[in-house]
Amino acid sequence: MEIGAYSFGDTQRNADGSLRSTGEAIRNLFEAIKHADASGLDYFGVGEHHTTTMPASSPGTLIAAAAAATSSIKLGSAASIISTDDPVRIFQQFATAEVISGGGRIEITAGRGSSVETFPLFGYDLGEYDELYAEKLDLLMAINNANDSNITWSGTKRPTIEDLAVVPRPLGGRLPIWVATGGNASSSARAGQLGLPVSYGIIGGAPHRFAPLAELYRRAGAQAGHSEESLKISVAALGLVAPTKKEALERFYPGWVNINVEMGRLRGWPAPDKRAYDAQAEAPGAYYVGSPDEVAERIVHLHGYMGHMRHFLQMDVGGLPQEHLLESITLLATEVKPRVQRLLAQK
């Protein structure tokens, strides 16, 4: 089981609640990735968002920088919104990062976007949400699976490519490409049919309710003739690790309120309710907030349902102080990870 973290960038706040600079948020994220590598975390993902509170708008850029500044951690997007970007550029950026990393550490997670601000930002029609994703994923796979640098491809949402070079090529020939989904059954089936690993973003409810989707994914993959080894599952969730459960709950709550207030303004969500927070932070809720023992036990519990090979947490939400993020990364790598390995070995 790989243990990791992910972030959309988290803009810090002043004492009066006002936002600090997005530049500081990006520097903090870069430092967190380096700290994760030094601490022994297995994976760090950078998710694409384009807001003042979550400014990690260019995962490929951050990952290329981190590839040069780290030595062993796997790095990937969590996710790249391929519907409103160009798969050629995404592939080139991540292939460049892969070469810089020395090979074998860079991944792409292809998402449709739960936050849809990229559609007006880049001039795409939200009504073509599904069609854009399907076609862009097809192009990304065609580039990745090519035997040489020259690509020929045609579609309806992007100009044709006629025997043109897409460079550089990754050192290993291909990049791991994951399909990101928030629980859409058709996305699980599509990933299985294509033989691509799938990453489930679980941000509410009981995580084990995703078990039927994992079963659907594996069944679709087997029916399409893909090997069991190629059908990998990861789980992305919200959480924070602290020395005690009380500290973790107190540290994570203010940021949770901030992000829910913002999402309420953008999406019409109700005002944040502490009772909802408390319920989600206790088993079997979706938030992995607690001591190393509790977080490890809950990850292993979910593994019994999902059989996933990677579990990674978004910890820096709503202005979480940087020192709390770095401590949580340390505990995740040095305390949670060995506990998970030990508990799985006992099963």
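Next protein, fold it too.
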Amino acid sequence: MLVDDFRSDTVTRPDKGMRAAMAAAEVGDAVYDDCPTTKRLEAMTAERLGKEAALFFPTGTQANLAGLMAHCGRGEEYLVGQMAHTYRLEGGGAAVLGSIQPQPLPNEPDGTIALEAIANAIKPNDFHFAITRLLALENTFNGLVLPDAYLEAATGLARSRGLATHLDGARLMNAAAASNRDAAWIAGQFDTVSLCLSKGLGAPIGSILVGPKEFIEKARRIRKMLGGGMRQTGVIAAAAIYALEHNVTRLSEDHRRAADLAAVLAHFPDLGAGSARTNMVFMTPKGLDVGAFVEFLRSRGIAVSGRYGTLRWVTHLDVDDESVGRVAEACELFFDRLKLTSDSRLHA
């Protein structure tokens, strides 16, 4: 049985308070824009992030895609990090569904894109090139918080060259908590921002796109086109409101717990664990059977995700200090057994 799920902060379950809010939600038809709970969610998110308007989406992928399509026309391009979620992990939707050309640029180790690379990628006014319309950044980036000065410099550069700016702020609230910044300050560096409600904030579904009122109305049309027009969304909007009201200030707990987890994993050098990045810890094991390690953890009710030889641990509101303790116990037992096996082979 799975007890401690570190695969992602998307695996959280609604608690009793959230379920009660969902059960009591006043609903209407959101496609007709008359669902009072959804309208309340959109208004409070726009206000919290310092924007004119907001629009509720079923997923972060769709919120980002609608944002990209509202910014860029067919055959136009957006600048984006090579490892960014909107480019690498959202099914190529901008190109496939929006006919938007991505211009991927190398991400630096801290998640930024070099300002020189951004400047050099902006196309001249020449009909041979796609028109560069948008710079899209991501914060946090693999758990890393983009520096304040970089946000100002990158978006300032984009504006000076006539580009719009979009933030994939799936974990924006984590970035704000870790940097002691108001989320509105980070959002204020960008024209538009997406915020995921079903990651660290613990709602079961939903993301929000915020920006100027005219832009959001354009995105509303695109949302319908993409199949994102939902009806009695008050039930899930109530969960999102509950998440914003109860689960933002506690994010620092996840960050502290990730640091504790990183310290535990560091006791076992073969795991190749790095330091905590907000609520994430990455590890690249050296000379270790990763599959056997993951399977051993799973046999003890612990789940972790990974690809290409790197494992990612994510802390969230459904893991606690005891969860970290059980990871420590599992690692101790795994390496003890590994040593016994190795010793028995040496003496065979």
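About the second fold: The first strand starts at residue 4 and ends at 5.
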